[in-house]
Specification:
Length: 193
């Protein structure tokens, strides 16, 4: 069976390079990538992906992964057929997300339905927004692909409720699966009648 090298342990990318030791006489390799017992990718690749006793597979054709735990294994094939699978190597995709910068609202606001805007964070798949004020605390989690374009995220009505007049504080946190970025610096605004 091939000897797996990478990825293993904590990995800081959703598109890791898979590498293993070359098996003499192999014509092709079959790689299997799993998460939570479900096969995400299983395919065969020509032995030409190997050079100097090292085989490498990058993304694509390997799939991009979500943050969390995964495992992978590989086996060689020659004229006689498939060899045994390697030991299943476990690894964790752990993305370090940056802090977002809030853009608006801030200061005096003359609408009771402001649009919240902030800079997007590379790798974020979701944002958590928290707004605190006279009516209590509003919490929303929203998919990045629904609200972000051109490096800016915007969230307003109907996703966010109409506000009562008064002072508010708000912040946003980027998320990607189980990975959380730091909270943004808080901004304050005041809704006037």
């Amino acid at each position: 069976a091939p000897f797996t090298i990478d990825p293993w342990g904590n990995v800081g990318t959703t598109a890791p390079t898979y590498s293993w030791g070359e098996v003499p006489g192999a014509l092709e390799y079959e790689i299997r990538i799993e998460t939570q017992g479900r096969i995400l990718h299983q395919a065969r690749y020509a032995a030409s992906i190997c050079a100097a006793a090292l085989c490498e597979l990058t993304s694509p054709p390997a799939p991009s992964l979500s943050p969390g735990y995964h495992r992978w294994s590989v086996r060689a094939r020659n004229e006689a057929g498939d060899g045994p699978w390697s030991h299943a190597q476990r690894f964790r995709v752990r993305i370090t997300l940056g802090r977002t910068t809030l853009l608006a609202p801030e200061g005096k606001v003359t609408t009771r339905q402001p649009v919240y805007r902030w800079q997007s964070v590379d790798g974020a798949t979701q944002y958590q927004i928290v707004v605190r004020g006279p009516g209590g605390t509003i919490r929303r989690a929203v998919a990045a692909d629904r609200i972000c374009t051109g490096g800016v995220c915007s969230l307003g009505s109907p996703s966010m409720p109409t506000l009562h007049p008064g002072r508010y504080r708000w912040w946003v946190r980027a998320r990607a699966g189980a990975s959380k970025g730091p909270r943004s610096t808080r901004k304050s605004f005041r809704v006037v009648r």
